[in-house]
Design goal:
This protein has about 190 residues and is mostly helical. It contains seven helices and no strands. The chain has one domain: de novo design (two linked rop proteins) (Up-down Bundle), CATH 1.20.1440. Helix content is about 80%, strand content about 0%. The radius of gyration is 24 Å and the shape is rod-shaped.
Length: about 190
């Protein structure tokens, strides 16, 4: 009788241990997917940051009286490159998008610049990169949603709390202007 009782207790312990291990492994997998998704955004943001100086340099020859516009883009780019984490990056990237939108509006006043093939190529590459950032942001936020749900739902919330799994921030748009589709015309 004692042996049967010990076997039952041992069986329960094994089942619980397997469940805990399974939940822990699922949490680790989701955490890694969130980190990978952020890396995908980071790659696209770096690409965007690298394109901006080329775009500005190409425009400088045509836009001699727009120093403030160039300084705003440079400052916003520096802030965006120095941002840490999704929340700070969302705010900094919003500011950079605002500066780029204003820059594109000023470009409208320079028909020779709008006809420059190098500028047009850079502008197209930037537009493509913006689309990739939006796609990567969506993927990242989906992964964060799955991860955050997992660490909040029973019984995985017990395992998550025991092993210090914490909620992740979404990569959210921080300003209303970026919520609107930027107007770019050629």
């Amino acid at each position: 009788m004692i042996v049967i009782g010990l076997l039952i207790v041992l069986g329960i312990i094994v089942v619980v241990a397997v469940m805990v291990a399974g939940i822990y492994n699922a949490l680790v997998r989701l955490r890694n997917q969130v980190e990978n998704a952020w890396s995908q955004i980071d790659v696209q943001l770096k690409r965007r940051h690298d394109l901006i100086p080329n775009l500005v340099e190409t425009a400088k020859g045509y836009m001699e009286h727009e120093r403030g516009t160039f300084e705003a883009i440079t400052e916003a780019r520096s802030r965006a490159m120095g941002a840490n984490g999704p929340a700070e990056a969302g705010q900094a990237e919003g500011m950079l998008s605002d500066a780029l939108s204003k820059f594109m509006l000023v470009v409208e006043n320079y028909p020779d610049l709008k006809a420059n093939q190098n500028f047009l190529s850079l502008q197209e590459t930037l537009t493509s990169t913006e689309n990739k950032i939006a796609f990567a942001r969506q993927g990242y936020n989906d992964q964060v949603l799955f991860y955050n749900n997992k660490i909040e739902m029973f019984p995985s919330n017990i395992v998550a709390g025991s092993f210090n799994f914490t909620k992740r921030d979404f990569f959210e748009i921080e300003n209303e202007e970026e919520r609107n589709v930027p107007k770019v015309s050629f």
